[in-house]
Design goal:
The complex is a heterodimer of chains A (about 475) and B (about 90).
Chain A (H helix, E strand, L loop, with lengths): L6 E6 L4 H5 L1 H8 L5 E5 L12 E3 L4 H6 L3 E2 L1 E6 L2 E7 L1 E2 H8 L11 E2 L2 E2 L5 H11 L8 E4 L5 H7 L13 H8 L9 E5 L4 E4 H11 L6 H11 L6 H6 L5 E7 L1 H5 L14 H16 L22 E3 L10 H4 L8 E14 L6 H12 L13 E5 L1 H10 L3 H12 L1 E2 H4 L18 E2 L7 E5 L7 E7 L11 E4 L3
Parallel strand pairs in A: 1-2, 2-3, 13-14, 16-19
Antiparallel strand pairs in A: 1-5, 4-9, 5-6, 7-8, 11-12, 13-15, 15-20, 15-21, 16-20, 17-18
Chain B lengths: L4 E4 L23 E6 L5 H14 L3 E6 L9 H10 L2 E5 L3
Classes of the chains: A alpha+beta (about 475), B alpha/beta (about 90).
Amino acid sequence: MKTFPDGLVAVVKGDCQTCRMIQPVMTKLAGGQIPFTVLTQDDPEFLSGVTKVIDDTKLAYSYQLNIEVVPTLMRVENGREIKRIIGWNRKEWRQFTGIADLGQDLPEQRPGCGARNMEPEIAEELAWRYQSAELNARRIEIAAQEDDLEACFERGWTDGLPVVPPTEKRVRRMLLGSQRAADEIVGIIPPNQVPCTVEKVAINAVMAGCQPEYLPVVLAAVEAACMDAFCMHGLLATTYFSGPVVIVNGPIAKAIGMNAGLNVFGQGNRANATIGRSLQLVIRNVGGGRPGGVDRATFGNPGKYTFCFAEDEEGSPWESLAVERGFKEGASTVTLFAGDGVQAIMDQRSRTPESLSRTYANSLKTVAHSKIFMVADAVLVVSPEHARVFRKAGWTKQRLRQEIDEILKTRGSEIIRGAQDIAEGMPEIFADVDVTKFSPGGLHIVHAGGKAGMFSAIIGGWVASGPIGSQSVTKEIAL
Amino acid sequence: MTEKRFLLDPTAEKSPPWRERAPRLPSLNDRTIALLDISKARGDVFLDRIEEKLSQQGLAVKRYKKPTFARIAPIELKQEISTDCHAVVEALAD
């Protein structure tokens, strides 16, 4: 911490009308009994008549003193600031300096201006310069003739789409989005089981195109992916379609402008697009999980670029996914589900919950295969127009789930291998029992989508859902 | 002189920071070798001799030529070589 000579210290800038206006006051103070020093944030030219001027154009003092407004007048004793006043107020300045006729030709009061160290870009840079920790990531020099975007492709850092080149400036700005230390370990990333720091997540979030305020969500998503129950390694390695689907709940979704409505699974929303992409890039770059390497998907699905959305909690007739999973109202969470693409459900005729739940059940039966039960979970995403039917009838989420389960309950003999002249199906041992399509807890119901359209959606799950493979996991977002 | 530019490594840093070379072919058996003339003087003489040597070993050889040494190879040419051949020998300079 820099110290100052005892006496009065003023912080000013020439760009401020009030500072220029009080120039005679400063001249007077410079000639007075109390030692007087002026710190200037820009061109000191206007301070002629003041002898002790400290050039603070680099803003080091201003940053450390946390100057918000110029002029600021401080009293310093034994090298430490005792008190400060801001702006121009004749009475206040007279009391503060003990000079009874100070500024008698000046107006009684004038507000000050914002200090230069508080300007957005500059404040950020000062924070990096004086506050932030060393970054540990390897710095890779880009050749003079190399294009930054192409350099990222050539090093294998992208998912096939261009990434934002992770410069130090961008990464430092990203790190300001979280309170967490850059070197804190977020988790062990599969498949290479690599410890991943906040810094590495931030680098990949930059590349994905995130804003700094998305970083807490990305960090929570990465933490969730590292939870043993989620089985990210297996999900990556499978020949099946699935990848991590990120569902965000709580106030953060709205705060960062996530989409829970129209075109909710589609393109066009930066937060949705880049948060999901960040998780995939962390797995690719830090974990080393790449298609053709450990990722052995036969088809994959377009959601493996990014699949992230928010639940529409405001318009929902039900408690949110997060509350249902034991988090308190108002908590912001990330839920990961090992899911495939989106399967459409069209029902424009049902006006009763009984009819609509039968529609849902019939569609849900085909997840993975209409004769394969209890191995793939699913997320049923109910649209506002469909949700209206359940709200009107007073059906809870639990009721809907029970009805679907009941409708889907099937005699094993109808779906065992060979039944219906289809070789695929359930093992013979299920022949004489009733089987439900989903394991307990395997059917998740959330509310999202545009206000118009009598459709709902199914996100089918990995055929290794549950304890044998992936269970959906929820992590609270640390803000 | 432009300022040096750096990017921060997004990976686990288990591979070298420089771009890796394509893996070497374990053997040339049954491989097709492209010989690329960049249109510099006497490149053809050098490649004629290489072709002669490779052909003696029973290897398939295909000849290609860049329109001008002053510019990078046209995309079509690069695609043609990477589609039809397994390795390329380029006669770089005179």
